[in-house]
């Protein structure tokens, strides 16, 4: 689990093993934190884009991205940049926790 200013990323192994192991994405973007529909849709679009970029490198697991803080009013361009930067850092942390990438002791 990793927590940032706006998002929390949780990941878990799927309970029934999947026939083809792959990373899967779930998102929770509550209306109370992002009041406008355009804001919620933009956030989801950017999260999906980031996940597609990192998907092949991530360990096979279910990833849940949850918005946990209120989005301050800003332009959609600024919102995209903030969301992409934070979500990319969460997926980078998940990738760093992968057994193949850990240093041998």
Summarize the structure.
Helix content is 37%, strand content 18%.
List the helices and strands and how they pair.
Layout: E1 2-3, E2 7-12, E3 24-28, H1 37-54, E4 62-67, H2 76-96
Parallel strand pairs: 3-4
Antiparallel strand pairs: 1-2, 2-4
Describe the structure in your own words.
- This protein is of the alpha+beta class and about 100 residues long.
- The protein has one domain: Ribosomal Protein S5, domain 2 (2-Layer Sandwich).
- It has two helices and four strands; from the N terminus they run E-E-E-H-E-H.
- A four-stranded mixed beta sheet has the order 1-2-4-3, covered by helices on one side.
- Helix 1 links the parallel strand 3 and strand 4 (about 60-65).
What's the CATH architecture? 2-Layer Sandwich
Order of helices and strands: EEEHEH
The number of helices is: 2
Number of strands: 4
Strand adjacency order, main sheet: 1-2-4-3
* Tally of individual domains: 1
What composes the largest sheet?
4 strands, mixed
Provide tags for this entry.
105 residues, alpha+beta, Ribosomal Protein S5, domain 2, elongated, 4 strands
